[in-house]
Design goal:
83 residues, 4 strands, four-stranded antiparallel β-sheet, 24% strand, single chain, alpha+beta
C-alpha cells in the first residue's frame, strides 16, 4: 500500500471497499484515526452522496461508515500501522 508523508506522520492509502474512494490514514493509537481525503474523494464517496441526496447537509455527516469499516479491516490486516 503506498504511503505519503503528512505533517502528522506517515499516511497509508486506504480504498473504500464499497466505492473505491481512496483516503490517507494515520493511526497514532488504537482509538485515534486521522483521515485525509484526496482531491475530490469526498465527492466520489457514494455513501456521502446518498446522504446528501437524502437532504443531509455535508457538514452534518460525521463520516462514511463503509470507509470506516474499510479502515478498520486494513488495521486488523496490518496494512495500516498503529504508531
Amino acid at each position: 500500500m503506498p504511503r505519503v508523508d503528512d505533517r502528522d506522520g506517515v499516511m497509508t492509502e486506504v480504498a473504500c471497499r464499497r466505492c473505491g474512494t481512496t483516503v490517507g490514514v494515520h493511526k497514532s493509537s488504537t482509538t485515534q484515526t486521522s483521515v485525509q481525503w484526496r482531491g475530490d474523494s469526498a465527492a466520489t464517496c457514494t455513501e456521502l452522496a446518498e446522504r446528501r441526496a437524502a437532504g443531509q447537509h455535508p457538514a452534518l455527516v460525521p463520516r462514511c461508515e463503509s470507509l470506516t469499516q474499510s479502515i478498520d479491516e486494513a488495521v486488523r490486516a496490518g496494512q495500516v500501522p498503529v504508531e
